[in-house]
Amino acid sequence: MRKRRSTKLINTLTLNAAIIISLMYLVFFGIDRVNTAMEFINNDITKWLLVILAVITIYNSVARMCLDRRLDRKRKTKEQK
Asked: What is the pLDDT of residue 41?
């Protein structure tokens, strides 16, 4: 029970972090197009944010695949009964 709560919390946090970082990138892209002197996209911080976003997205995808497989197994066992 405790493991499920912590896993659910981690999944929720990573999903929210992915949304926030994605929105930040959209804002950076918009500002960079309007004022190219700001160079938001060619910044080391944005490069690290892109790495973090990629890792979070991979984690979320794997977690979702595991959840789908678990739900499929439960459905199959219910159908067999």
From this structure: 84
